[in-house]
Amino acid sequence: MTRNMTCIGCPMGCDLIVEVENGVAVSVTGNSCGIGKKYAETEVAAPTRMVTSTAPSDGGGPVPVRTRVAVPKDKIFDVVADIKATVVKRPVAIGDVVIEDAAGTGVPVIATKAVE
Ligand code: SF4
């Protein structure tokens, strides 16, 4: 089976052609660097995404946050729901953990901006 996908590794957005056998990427073409090959292999085997959002806070406006690492793609909506249901206590510094385990993924959510 052949899958076409666009690499999201950088703004070039290379068009990838991926040959898949038994759920494994056996050939990747169209990539301009190794990141594209790795992206295609991961996308076929177990797709993941970083989640960036904002969480409500106890001091007024929302706090920008993101997952520390990528989470399984099928958990994105659960992670966003967890973020939206969490009230962050101010002040926060960049990198502070605001959720220890987002939606049971084991991945922390961290602040991406210092907020007084
Ligand atoms: S394959 Fe490399 S150059 Fe092409 S979009 Fe992905 S990261 Fe960018």
Give the arrangement of secondary structure elements:
Elements: E1 2-6, E2 15-21, E3 24-29, H1 34-45, E4 48-49, E5 52-57, E6 60-67, E7 71-72, H2 76-84, E8 97-99, E9 109-111
Antiparallel strand pairs: 1-2, 2-3, 4-7, 5-6, 6-9, 8-9
The structure holds iron/sulfur cluster.
Brief write-up:
By secondary structure, the protein is of the alpha+beta class.
List keywords for this structure.
116 residues, alpha+beta, 2 domains, 3-stranded antiparallel sheet, elongated, binds iron/sulfur cluster
3D structure, described in words:
- This protein is α+β, with helices and mostly antiparallel strands and 116 residues long.
- The protein folds into two domains: 2-45, no CATH class; 52-111, no CATH class.
- Helix content is 18%, strand content 36%.
- The protein has helices spanning 34-45, 76-84; strands at residues 2-6, 15-21, 24-29, 48-49, 52-57, 60-67, 71-72, 97-99, 109-111.
- It has a four-stranded antiparallel sheet with strand order 5-6-9-8. A three-stranded antiparallel sheet has the order 1-2-3, covered by helices on one side. It has a two-stranded antiparallel sheet with strand order 4-7.
- A hairpin with a 2-residue loop joins strand 5 and strand 6.
- The radius of gyration is 17 Å and the shape is elongated.
- Bound molecules: iron/sulfur cluster.
